[in-house]
Amino acid sequence: MKFSIQVNEGPYTHQASDTAYNFTRAALEGGHEIYRVFFYHDGVNNGTRMTTPPQDDRNIVNRWSELSKEYDLDLVLCVAAAQRRGIVDEDEAKRHGKSGDNVAEGFRISGLGQLIDAGINSDRLISFGD
Fold first, then answer.
1. Calpha distance 14→70 (Å, rounded)
2. Which residues are known to be catalytic?
3. Residue 34's pLDDT is what?
């Protein structure tokens, strides 16, 4: 089965990100396809490389980045939600006169149309979080 995943909550504030990650990993290991993981609302906070959890805590951002690398996943941060939360890639940083970018490895910024595309091209679109 082909899934797309929508993550609406940030790391460390809600279990949605951990649950989405665990579901995504299990689906991939079970032979299913993940078309796209779309991070929306506070979920875009899963894609900032500035997250620095204590050494004895899980690093949710790194988990997503490593999973993306391992399975060639498309991890998309909603551009409007990201900008509202101070998350910008190199192009957006230049366009808005910011001094640097902070998108984690494996993530990219794009528009809400990517979520629509994911829903159209998947058997199931599963949302995690409010």
1. 25
2. 78
3. 98
* Tens of pLDDT, residues 46-91: 999 999 999 999 999 999 999 999 999 999 999 999 999 999 999 9
Give the total number of structural domains in the chain. Answer: 1
pLDDT tens, 6-48?
Answer: 999 999 989 999 999 999 999 999 999 999 999 999 999 999 9
Q: Which two tokens stand for residue 31?
A: 């032979």
Total residue count of the chain as it appears in this document: 130
Give the H or E element holding residue 117. Answer: helix 113-120
Residues 7 and 20: their CA atoms lie apart, in Å, by 7
CATH of the domain at 85: 3.40.1260.10
Task: Give the domain extent around 94.
Answer: 2-128
What is the C-alpha to C-alpha distance for residues 111 and 4, in angstroms, rounded to an integer? Answer: 16
Cβ 75 vs Cβ 103: under 8 Å? no
